[in-house]
Amino acid sequence: MSPRNLQRPIAAAVAIAFLATSTGCATNPDGSFKKNEDGTFVIDDKAKGALIGAAAGCALASATGSDCAKGAVIGAVAGFLIGWYFESKKIASAQQVNKEYASSKTSAPPRKDVVPASFSTQVKEAPPDASGQKEIQLTSNTDMIGYGDKVPQVQQKYAIYDENNKLVEEKTEKVAAVDGAGRYQTNSKFKLPASAKGKTYTVKTALVSNNKTYKENSYKVAFADDGRVMVLAMAN
């Protein structure tokens, strides 16, 4: 299907997906729709994610000969659930971190390799975004030690489970800042739908180096009725 011929089914499918994820326009307290200064309606974050996911889902479905509308609805749901932000950065040099571990009997830096030596995660409520929605922020610190020349492939995996231990969302990110030994920090943020209020979830994050899981951290997170996020305890 040519790009021009694809435009019409995408437009129709996006409309279907828009309805499938409920009304996407932001509303005032009296229930009326909010408008921008130019008179156009304000679209909330849920709808923005749905529209992006719908377009991607439709395009993928069409490319594989499947139904565009079905692909758009699936894409819309995925776009809404992700609401994802991730970044990584190096915060301490290889020389500094290797020196800190040099005297360790259990985690001495290997001479011909670079391996993880520490992985910790802090979960907290992030400041509200521009729309006032609360977010969860995960900040992880990872120590990589060793004097090897080969840079390891490091990933961080995230998963969220509901009260019935059913997977809600998962994500895998490459820790792109890793260039060898050193201390690295990752920051990620996400939102869950309004239906999450009053419920407790398990948030898990794992560090993977060269396809081997080094460590997994797990937390119980409660969403209060007013949207506040409370970290209850580390899950077993």
UniProtKB/TrEMBL annotation:
Domain YMGG-like Gly-zipper: 46-83
Source taxonomy: Bacteria, Pseudomonadati, Pseudomonadota, Betaproteobacteria, Nitrosomonadales
InterPro entries: Gly-zipper_YMGG
Source species: Sulfuritalea hydrogenivorans sk43H
Designated name of the protein: 17 kDa surface antigen
Keyword set, alphabetical order: Signal
Signal peptide coordinates: 1-26
